[in-house]
Design brief:
The protein is mainly alpha-helical and about 600 residues long. It has 2 domains: about 325 residues, no CATH class; about 140 residues, no CATH class. It is built from 27 helices and 8 strands. The strands form 2 sheets. It has a 6-stranded mixed sheet with strand order 2-3-1-6-8-7. A two-stranded antiparallel ribbon has the order 4-5. Helix 4 crosses helix 6 and helix 9 runs antiparallel to helix 10. The protein is globular and about 90 Å long. The N and C termini lie far apart (about 110 Å).
Length: about 600
């Protein structure tokens, strides 16, 4: 008996060790990729500390904070972001809760009212919570891409795609920002992964998983609704077999799939998941549809500094971007190696025309067909389709590798791919991470101003201004206690329709006349604002506004004294060139 028990224990131990070695052998490369991806996303994560420079982070953090202030909830609380659904703000608010509990347990904030004060004194800490969400979502996407590629094609395809996502500049850069894009990409990729499971297995739980993540994706950003198409395609493309194991005719297979209750339940589940995560249609249907229509109209119309042709994400005939939005094309943000691979891969899959190929092509091609027509061009809008493009590029590589007849040729092939497509992006991402550690030019300008300009000076600023404390800030009495601010100034926006420091300060105006009417002492101008007016398409679409702005800059050169100029300490466009001018007093304009 004892001998049998010991033998059973030995056999179990051997089995566990065998499975452990098998798991390690299969996943060690993926673990390495996840580690590299984590480090690339972690480096530079605290850029800007203690100030907030990413414009989209500010409104999302503000919205999430309002959601936690349940005592003052109203419809406006949920519609605060207008054209954006609120799920990301819900997730961010939930992520704030552990941090707030830690503040209270540690004695840093002894009550919820004290937490609110702490936020006004240290808002950057809450922004960092959002950045960690993006970091973790970006790393998780490495695993989901691998699982999708492995299940749809092969382990090699999954590993190549995961390697691309781990190091490629566009996802690495955006994983540093507490915004919706990386979380949205994780949700759409998860929905596609379950669509693959529908295609392979067709179990009800796979339909539920695909529906759940599709609904959550749409509740994060409305144009993610196209992710429902791979679910439908997987359902209709999945091979059906009769009792003898033979594949059924195409027509009977289609009819059977059409009346299959699973696809109809999936549609209902998607709608239910969306409405739970985004209750706006239930709260106020009219306002909801109005906000969606307004967002669609804005994206079609664009704004000053936006626009471009359908293929401008390839050709670069739209704005190259600035700040955290620069490198605004596929070749610049994914690298020429990956761009050529996915373009050739699309052609290869269209030529091969397997069911798996149709399944993976539907979403990225149709999403680009929609986004490519928008006049507001930004690569972050295309992030949800990037995992699909990387999988397509990876499958092209896998198909080529299968034709290698010797290990030596395969090794040479792998080295070439790494050198041409992966290593350049790894270096570019690392260079960007290290550049994030530089002190922002706006921070440097703020420090100079507070050391040299008297309090209550009247200062005009453009949109990407130093973080000076305004005398009109709605929370001035609290923020004055912060060690991050030394002096208070009277601040004025010198860009039409610019919101400045707690209330709207400007309308459509001649900036030169406004400076004189308000008796401003100084002007702070930045290169990011100026870039909007210098872009050729801005001149073509808004000639009057561009001409008026050029006259203002000419007036500044002729009538103001340049005191100090702050330039970035590297060639990357993370922070703007900032200039401080003293306004020479002259007679008011007639």
């Amino acid at each position: 008996m004892k001998h049998s028990l010991k033998k059973w224990q030995d056999d179990l131990g051997t089995l566990i060790n065998t499975e452990r070695r098998k798991w390690w052998t299969e996943h060690r490369t993926l673990l390495l990729l996840a580690g590299v991806g984590f480090l690339l996303r972690l480096l530079g994560l605290g850029f800007g500390d203690p100030f907030r420079y990413h414009p989209d982070e500010m409104k999302l953090v503000y919205h999430a904070g309002n959601l936690l202030d349940y005592a003052s909830w109203s419809r406006e609380t949920f519609f605060l972001l207008r054209g954006y659904p609120p799920l990301y703000a819900f997730i961010l608010a939930a992520a704030f809760i552990p941090y707030i509990l830690w503040l209270m347990v540690s004695g840093t904030a002894t009550s919820l009212a004290a937490v609110k004060v702490y936020y006004y004194l240290h808002p950057f800490h809450f922004h960092l919570v959002g950045r960690w969400l993006s970091l973790l979502a970006g790393v998780m996407t490495i695993w989901v891409i691998y699982a999708a590629g492995r299940r749809l094609y092969s382990r090699r395809t999954g590993l190549w795609a995961a390697a691309f996502w781990a190091v490629t500049f566009l996802p690495v850069k955006n994983s540093h920002f507490g915004t919706v894009d990386i979380v949205l990409t994780l949700l759409t990729t998860l929905s596609f992964y379950f669509s693959i499971r529908i295609f392979r297995d067709g179990r009800m739980r796979d339909y539920v998983g695909a529906a759940l993540f599709a609904g959550l994706a749409v509740a994060t950003k409305y144009n993610a609704g196209l992710i429902i198409l791979p679910i439908v395609a997987a359902h209709f493309l999945a091979p059906a077999h009769d009792a003898a194991g033979a594949e059924e005719p195409r027509r009977s297979r289609f009819l059977a799939a059409l009346i299959d209750r699973r696809i109809w339940l999936t549609g209902l589940a998607t709608i239910a998941a969306f409405l739970i995560a985004c209750p706006l249609p239930l709260l106020d249907p009219g306002r909801f549809w109005e906000s969606v229509a307004g967002t669609a109209e804005f994206e079609q119309t664009g704004k000053l500094g936006s626009g471009g042709s359908f293929f401008s994400y390839f050709t670069g005939d739209h704005s190259p971007g600035y700040g955290f939005f620069y490198d605004n094309t596929f070749p610049a943000s994914l690298g020429w190696g990956v761009t050529l691979l996915f373009m050739l891969g699309i052609l290869y899959l269209l030529w091969r025309r397997r069911r798996e190929d149709i399944l993976i092509l539907i979403f990225p091609l149709l999403l680009y067909a929609v986004i490519g027509q928008m006049n507001y061009k930004a690569m972050r809008h295309l992030l949800p389709l990037v995992p699909f493009l990387l999988l397509i590029a990876a499958e092209l590589l896998s198909a080529a590798a299968e034709r290698m007849k010797s290990k030596r040729n395969l090794l040479i092939f792998n080295v070439i791919v790494i050198a041409a497509a992966i290593a350049p992006q790894l270096c570019k991402s690392l260079r960007y991470d290290l550049a994030l550690y530089q002190v922002d030019t706006r921070t440097r300008m703020k420090e100079w101003i507070e050391q040299n300009l008297p309090e209550q000076s009247r200062i005009g600023t453009e949109e990407f201004a130093p973080p000076l404390l305004s005398s009109l800030d709605l929370n001035l009495e609290i923020i004055r206690r912060s060690p991050d601010y030394r002096r208070v100034y009277n601040l004025f926006g010198v860009v039409p329709k610019m919101f400045a420091h707690g209330r709207q300060r400007t309308g459509d105006h001649d900036a030169r006349a406004y400076v004189q009417e308000q008796g401003l002492d100084y002007l702070v101008l930045d290169s990011f604002t100026r870039a909007r007016y210098e872009w050729p398409l801005s001149r073509q679409r808004y000639p009057d506004r561009v001409e008026q702005r050029e006259l203002f800059y000419k007036w500044v050169r002729e009538n103001c004294e340049l005191i100090v100029r702050m330039e970035p300490r590297n060639k990357l466009q993370i922070s703007p060139v900032v200039e401080l001018y003293r306004v020479k007093k002259e007679k008011p304009l007639p």
